[in-house]
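Dear H.,

Thanks for agreeing to be a second pair of eyes. The structure we're designing against is below in token form, covering all 311 positions.
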């Protein structure tokens, strides 16, 4: 040993640090903690500083830190605190993924529907891909209003989802994979874009117009094919005419009827309710007008679609 400084043989160092001789040689051969020198017999010896570095290596490895990062810590390129913070953040991501995976597996275990089981067994990445494909299919085109609408329809499963949220997430993914639903929602979005002149700010779509007018006029209690429905339908048509910038008349009412026919799909409302559960939002309120789409559609078929334009 060198005079004045305590040195350890590799065996003594193993006992001192809790590492095996093989592990110490491994770190030495890779230049992570090389020996301080060699004794007269040519055996490796280590000083207290090397022992301290090895104890740090052992602690970092026990925390799952990779060798490349440990090398940077020992070279003082990064601090232990920086490394700990980065790995804690990475663990948060892994914990969230494992929590969701456990919740999905629990949901699978309680389901009997084979098709849903098959869907639930897909990886988390695959489920996100299905939803992204659905939203891509629906919101194609350069309409600037689509970005905000898409965000509002994007599901984000919570970090620690409840069983109800997992069930809703799986059903929502299954719905998003429904090709006929994708096509219908795409057509609805395209019609919404067609109702706005290029460069206009977003305006209410047909269903929102109908709901607003029926709410103001109290149309829910009026039979849609009765004479009393005529003035209410005229008000709906005038409001829709203002949105699309066209005069009221048979052509506009035919156009409104086609919009409502396309929107009248229970899967659309189901998607919205599932989305609220998944994202932890309040459940959508029941429409005080009952079924405004159905009311207006029936009224257009009965008294207004080919009648005198609203005044």
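And this is the sequence the design step returned. I haven't edited it by hand at all.
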């Amino acid at each position: 040993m060198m005079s004045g400084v305590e040195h350890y043989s590799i065996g003594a160092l193993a006992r001192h640090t809790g590492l095996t001789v093989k592990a110490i040689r491994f770190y030495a051969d890779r230049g992570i903690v090389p020996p301080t020198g060699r004794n007269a017999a040519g055996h490796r010896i280590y000083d207290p500083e090397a022992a301290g570095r090895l104890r740090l290596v052992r602690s970092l490895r026990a925390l799952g830190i990779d060798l490349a990062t440990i090398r940077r810590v020992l070279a003082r390129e990064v601090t232990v605190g920086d490394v700990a913070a980065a790995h804690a953040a990475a663990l948060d991501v892994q914990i969230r993924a494992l929590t969701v995976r456990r919740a999905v597996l629990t949901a699978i275990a309680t389901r009997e529907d084979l098709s849903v089981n098959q869907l639930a067994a897909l990886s988390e990445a695959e489920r996100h891909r299905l939803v992204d494909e659905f939203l891509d299919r629906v919101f194609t085109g350069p309409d600037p209003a689509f970005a905000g609408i898409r965000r509002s329809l994007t599901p984000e499963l919570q970090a620690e989802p409840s069983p109800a949220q997992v069930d809703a997430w799986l059903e929502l993914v299954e719905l998003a994979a429904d090709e006929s639903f994708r096509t219908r929602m795409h057509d609805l979005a395209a019609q919404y874009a067609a109702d706005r002149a290029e460069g206009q700010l977003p305006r209410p779509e047909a269903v929102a117009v109908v709901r607003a007018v029926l709410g103001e006029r109290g149309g829910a209690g009026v039979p849609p094919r009765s004479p009393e429905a005529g003035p209410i339908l005229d008000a709906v048509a005038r409001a829709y005419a203002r949105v699309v910038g066209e005069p009221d008349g048979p052509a506009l009412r035919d156009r409104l009827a086609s919009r409502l026919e396309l929107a009248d799909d229970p899967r659309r409302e189901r998607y919205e309710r599932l989305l609220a559960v998944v994202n932890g939002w309040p459940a959508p309120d029941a429409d005080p007008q009952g079924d405004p789409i159905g009311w207006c559609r029936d009224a257009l078929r009965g008294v207004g679609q080919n009648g005198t334009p609203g005044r």
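Two observations from my side: The longest strand covers residues 44-46. The two ends are 107 Å apart (CA to CA).

Warmly,
E.
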